[in-house]
Amino acid sequence: MTLAAPVHDRGVTTLTLDAPARRNALSGPLVRALAGALDDCAADDSVRAVVLTHTGGTFCAGADLTSPPEPAAFVGLMRQITALPKPVVARVTGHVRAGGLGLLAACDIAVAGAGASFALTEARLGLAPAVISLTLLPKVDRTAAARYYLTGERFDAREAARISLITLAAEGGADGSDGAAEVDKALEPVLDGLRRSSPQGLMMSKRLVTATVLESFDQHTEDLIALSASLFASEEAGEGMNAFLERRDPTWVL
């Protein structure tokens, strides 16, 4: 399974990434399933907003290196979330890596808990955060983007909120839990606010916020897809991905 059955509650539909054995990595089937579910939400007048969450300890590990989606399909998914006429809220209680950050940044609002961690690991594999820059760079502090794009360092929810990757880091969960209860508590006023807003008000307000991001998609998608494809086909990236799958350092590590 790649996506759990949608759950509807008072105008809010929850879509759950449900491939925990694959760390909810972005495979072709997962991208297609999520895109189809979002289409259904867009067409359903009873849906006021969408919550995107996950099973297991990872929200999304980025591209599935054994069966990655076509770059155009993943870009299409990010654009679909950005352009959806209904707000998309990310509920994160686990790890987010590489392309998963692009998915997260496409969401309008994101709340993460103590169990969340984030890293842009592409440079360590001989790649670059190419297509996900379409959603990341309009949102994330540029100084922080430079650091985390280049170093691949891991950071927590509090830092993710500071650099504007997410909306809010939920307090609590310091007892070793993933902080799910605290995330749900932090989401209560957010979802209440969305339920109180009119469908037209939400659609037009979101359109104002996302206009420049969608312009960036229109201007840069083809070039970034080409860059992504060339990097994935390179000898250096082949070494990086093989090293990752073989759990060893790539040859360039000093």
List the topology elements.
Elements: E1 7-9, E2 12-17, H1 28-43, E3 49-54, E4 58-60, H2 71-83, E5 88-92, E6 95-97, H3 99-106, E7 109-112, E8 117-119, H4 133-136, H5 142-151, E9 155-156, H6 157-162, E10 168-169, H7 180-196, H8 199-232, H9 235-245
Parallel strand pairs: 2-3, 3-5, 4-6, 5-7, 6-8, 7-10
Antiparallel strand pairs: 1-2, 8-9
Helix pairs in contact: 1-2, 2-8
Q: What integer is the average pLDDT? A: 96
The number of helices is 9
Largest beta-sheet details = 6 strands, mixed
Shape: globular
Structural class call reads alpha/beta
Q: In total, how many beta strands? A: 10
Helix content: 40-55%
Radius of gyration: 17 Å
Largest sheet strand order: 1-2-3-5-7-10
The SSE order reads: EEHEEHEEHEEHHEHEHHH
Q: Notable features of this structure?
A:
single chain; 254 residues; alpha/beta; 6-stranded mixed beta sheet; 4-stranded mixed beta sheet; 47% helix
